[in-house]
Amino acid sequence: MKLSKMHLKTLREVPNEAEIPSHILLLRTGMIRKLVSGVYGFMPLGWRSVRKIEDIIRQEMDAAGGQEIHMSAVQPAELWEESGRWFAYGPELWRLKDRNGREFCLGPTHEEIFTDIVRNDVASHRQLPLNLYQIQTKYRDEARPRFGLMRSREFIMKDAYSFDKDEAGLDQSYQEMYDAYDKIFTRCGLTFRPVEADSGAIGGSNSHEFTALSEVGESEIAYCESCSMAATTERAECVDAPAQNDVEMLALEDVHTPGTKTIEEVAGFLGLDESQTMKALLFVTYDEEGKENGYVAAFVRGDRELNMTKLVNALDIPEHSIEFADEEKMAEACGCVGGFTGPVGLHDCKIVVDSELVGLKNLVAGANKENYHTKNVNYGRDYEGDIVVDLKVLQEGDACPVCGAPVKHARGIEVGQVFKLGTKYSDSMGAYYKDENMKDQLIVMGCYGIGVTRTLAAVVEQHHDENGIIWPMSVAPYHVIITVMKPDDEVQAEVADKIYTDLMKAGAEVMLDDRKERPGVKFKDADLLGIPIRITVGRGAADGIVEYKMRRDADKIEISVEDAITKAVTTINEEK
Length: 576
Ligand code: ATP
Ligand code: MG
Hints:
Layout: H1 21-28, E1 32-36, E2 39-42, H2 44-63, E3 67-68, E4 74-76, H3 77-83, H4 85-88, E5 94-97, E6 103-106, H5 111-121, E7 130-139, E8 154-164, H6 167-187, E9 192-196, E10 206-213, E11 219-223, E12 230-232, E13 253-256, H7 263-270, E14 278-286, E15 292-301, H8 308-315, E16 322-324, H9 327-334, E17 350-354, E18 363-366, E19 372-377, E20 387-389, E21 408-422, H10 424-429, E22 432-434, E23 440-442, E24 444-451, H11 452-462, E25 464-465, E26 468-469, E27 480-484, H12 490-505, E28 510-513, H13 519-529, E29 533-537, E30 545-550, E31 556-560, H14 561-575
Parallel strand pairs: 3-7, 15-17, 17-20, 27-28, 27-29
Antiparallel strand pairs: 1-2, 4-6, 5-6, 7-8, 8-24, 9-10, 10-21, 11-12, 11-21, 13-19, 14-15, 14-16, 18-19, 21-24, 22-23, 25-26, 29-30, 30-31
Helix pairs in contact: 1-11, 2-6, 2-11, 12-14
């Protein structure tokens, strides 16, 4: 493609709302175009890279036995009511009505649709296993769309669904998808880590996220260098502090602790370590109609952080149906006092207690009395939990749940996730097959997503410098950019044209910068756009010499036109 003819508009100014490199660079290169918050379109270069990622995904999905189909983004509410997710998915589900008042949503994911297809089409065990996938536009009315393609409201996803006869079949399908994901993200040039993950609103029992490592990522992962443990901090199990079985329980004692509302303040005031206290977090929950239906008090050791994912899993409610309680209202209903809430004497609320509190002795807790705390609070004697479960976040330096070594934290971008769904959807929606004995059996499912457009952003996030993007060959919009210093110079124009034509004949994707711009402008644009190979045609053209440079390297070399072509073709074939 000749740049003089290309629809390309790069920006010199960094748009205000863009905070992270990938968002800034995708806008500056003119690859994406914002329509409204969280909704982006793709311009020629951007769309080429999207399609490259899609192609890689298609090749690996097909190689793993997947069959591509394409479903509508519009989905009828009835299917979501069958699975129970019309409520469970919450306000992220983009709902709409047709002219007759019938309810629909724009699909954020397609478990219901694929389950519906398979329950209609699959009758016999002979038709299983089956793996269907699509690459399709998804809609999620995200509370905080941000970072451009990272968290948008409309985005492209590859979603695959596996259907097996039994758990062993699912294990195999899951492993095949896991391995395919490994290949896909490697081919996209990402540095990533598969980590154990929570199953969230999708449901199911076992899941891994593929996380592209990046400081700007919204996923936090905990990993261990002594063993192979790696999990999102939402999911990571924690090791409880050892039970203090031989410590004697002391008598309860209320102490005056004026103005000490935080754990830090109360521990400081009493001269204790924060780990000798416990803290309360108060919530209200909502029913399907959005009406308040109860209070929850969650307790963790004072120095721990409450893990919201573990809390909603323990309560078995969707994340959107719980929020922090209005302390005054809750005080009236349950007898607590904001800032001084403890478990003793609390009533009319669900008490959820972190598992390690059971074995710890003589803790300080709020006294449910303004400006008072209670010393020597003990589980069993003084209070009990309706639910006792691991409720805490695995912090950096905490003991690894597998081997005990101190864990590390890292941030990353979740580019894909694989789930073992088991029979969650086949059960709720009635997807059966007949086994060898003609008996009905539930189909066992898995689902596997990749954020195509988020992957594009993740690639830019990992591959850029202060001058622009540095595309890996595999997903670059073009392989080579030929920069002509003086397009009016006949020799330069001719040499550039020869390189352009020869490279394309050899299968390369080439941009020819034949614009009547100053060389400085062209070099800046070439760096910004990040095309992997730059061939500059200038004064040396008369002697058949051009300049050859990789975007990722600082140095450039002068070589003959023929060598430049051969070198480029070899590099492209090795790296694409
Ligand atoms: P997140 O935790 O980031 O909200 P999710 O767990 O809800 O994501 P999945 O339901 O697993 O996402 O969707 C599959 C993939 O789709 C994700 O791994 C991610 O790459 C991509 N994805 C999800 N939400 C968005 C979004 N709002 N914008 C862009 N890509 C997204
Ligand atoms: Mg996910």
